[in-house]
């Protein structure tokens, strides 16, 4: 390779010939005449010449010269240096005659002595010229693991909600368009005419809602919200702050949160029993229990109308549509008893000595069903509130909270009485939600047992 841009290849082509010519010169020491001022230059030339002759290879192959070993120096190794293969022949020592009465004896190496040469097998050390960077010396601590809520971090949950919401909106839009096209077909139009979404109730079915039903509705919502709150707290509570022990049963010790949850369950069950009894005494059961097989095709018709956004226009004061009736039946007579039975199995009130009963109804079954039932109630409440507010909010709130209504669906469409009852009930529920903490619950729990911190 050239040593300068655009120069000749290095080393020159006559380097081998120069090295071969230097070999005989070692056998006959040269006679050098020099002036007194040239002594150092001649001695340096003699040393270089002797080194070149000593390192000559029997093959005559010169080494390739590389980069200098010192800044600004000559390339390494010196010109004409060859790899050592074998020692050269012995030669007699002859004196070198030097002018100006200075003589230097240059002895020739003996035959048994190896020829001295430069060792080029190990690279020489060189100064560091490249900075490796601060990360070569500083090792930063790894970032802490982000907190997780379940399997995902907060950012992952936010992304999942956003992506999932967009996907649900897209699926809902496609469902609406598809059902609208479906209902435009003549067979489906005939189906909607035959089954409009509701069927006639039996003769003697009551019209309207009595006052006790409004109170029952409020108490049910009040207790259900607190039950869901305390249930979620039990599920996520790792170290309770207070405990409750019943009188006369030290082994029945539970956390204060569990006591509160079970107490709410008992009140909710009492309210439910009263509600069911009044349903059958007053005949209101005919509004929530299907009395005809037509409920199923009418329920399908109502669902199609909801999906198409052309919602049913029944008057809830007189009758529910079929999908409402089936949902209320499922909630009152299936979901509520299932929640009660599974909760009782997991509570301390379950008889511990009933081994056969415990084996027939394992607690694992109860735990597997209890939480999904609670999720059903959460979804039911969300959909129920949405439909109440989106299908005539003032009219529906008057039915539910003020027990006011008429066979004319527009009679109470602008009456605000039920709305203000709703606002008052929500204020009571919010106050109970905030107050449901050990500082407030402990004095109440002491009326029924012992409260301790451990």
Task: Specify the structural class.
Answer: mainly alpha
Which blocks of ≥5 consecutive residues have pLDDT under 50? Answer: 23-37, 54-59, 86-116
**Mean pLDDT rating:** 80
Largest sheet: 3 strands, antiparallel
Give the helix proportion (percent range): 40-55%
Query: In percent terms, what proportion of residues is strand?
Result: under 5%
Gross morphology: elongated
Instruction: Please report the total strand number as a whole number.
Output: 7
Polypeptide structure, described:
The protein is mainly α. It has helices at 15-25, 39-54, 154-183, 186-194, 211-236, 256-282, 285-288, 295-307, 322-346, 355-360, 363-390, 393-402, 417-435, 438-445; strands at 94-96, 104-106, 148-149, 152-153, 243-246, 254-255, 449-452. The strands form three sheets. A three-stranded antiparallel β-sheet has the order 6-5-7. A hairpin with a 2-residue loop joins strand 3 and strand 4. Helix 1 packs across helix 2 and helix 12 crosses helix 13 (417-435). The model is unreliable at 23-37, 54-59 and 86-116 (pLDDT under 50).
């Amino acid at each position: 390779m050239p040593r300068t841009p655009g120069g000749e290849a290095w080393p020159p082509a006559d380097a081998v010939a120069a090295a071969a010519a230097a070999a005989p010169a070692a056998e006959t020491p040269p006679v050098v005449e020099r002036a007194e001022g040239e002594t150092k230059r001649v001695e340096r030339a003699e040393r270089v010449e002797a080194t070149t002759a000593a390192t000559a290879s029997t093959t005559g192959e010169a080494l390739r010269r590389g980069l200098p070993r010192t800044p600004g120096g000559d390339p390494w190794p010196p010109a004409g240096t060859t790899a050592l293969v074998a020692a050269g022949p012995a030669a007699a020592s002859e004196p070198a005659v030097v002018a100006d009465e200075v003589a230097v004896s240059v002895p020739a190496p003996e035959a048994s002595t190896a020829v001295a040469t430069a060792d080029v097998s190990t690279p020489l050390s060189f100064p560091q010229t490249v900075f490796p960077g601060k990360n070569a010396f500083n090792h930063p601590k790894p970032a802490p693991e982000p907190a997780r809520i379940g399997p995902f971090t907060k950012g992952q949950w936010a992304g999942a909600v956003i992506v999932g919401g967009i996907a649900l909106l897209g699926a809902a839009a496609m469902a609406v368009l598809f059902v609208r096209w479906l209902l435009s077909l003549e067979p489906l139009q005939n189906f909607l005419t035959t089954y409009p979404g509701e069927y006639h109730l039996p003769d003697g079915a009551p019209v309207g809602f009595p006052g006790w039903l409004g109170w029952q509705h409020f108490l049910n919502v009040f207790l259900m919200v607190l039950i869901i709150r305390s249930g979620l707290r039990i599920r996520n509570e790792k170290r309770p702050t207070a405990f409750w022990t019943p009188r006369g049963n030290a082994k029945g010790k539970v956390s204060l949160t569990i006591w509160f949850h079970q107490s709410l369950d008992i009140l909710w069950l009492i309210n439910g029993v009263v509600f069911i009894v009044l349903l059958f005494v007053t005949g209101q059961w005919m509004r929530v229990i299907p009395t005809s097989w037509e409920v199923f095709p009418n329920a399908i018709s109502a669902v199609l109308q909801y999906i198409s956004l052309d919602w049913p226009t029944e008057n809830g004061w007189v009758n529910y549509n079929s999908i409402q009736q089936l949902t209320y039946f499922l909630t009152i007579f299936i979901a509520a008893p299932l929640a009660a039975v599974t909760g009782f199995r997991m509570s301390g009130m379950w008889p511990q000595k009933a081994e056969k009963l415990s084996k027939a109804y394992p607690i694992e079954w109860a735990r597997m069903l209890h939480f999904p039932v609670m999720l059903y109630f959460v979804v039911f409440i969300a959909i129920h509130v949405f439909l109440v507010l989106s299908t005539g909010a003032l009219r529906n709130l008057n039915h539910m909270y003020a027990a006011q209504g008429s066979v004319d669906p527009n009679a109470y469409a602008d009456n605000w009485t039920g709305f203000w009852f709703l606002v008052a009930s929500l204020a009571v529920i919010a106050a109970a939600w905030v107050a449901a903490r050990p500082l407030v619950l402990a004095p109440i729990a002491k009326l029924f047992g012992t409260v301790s911190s451990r």
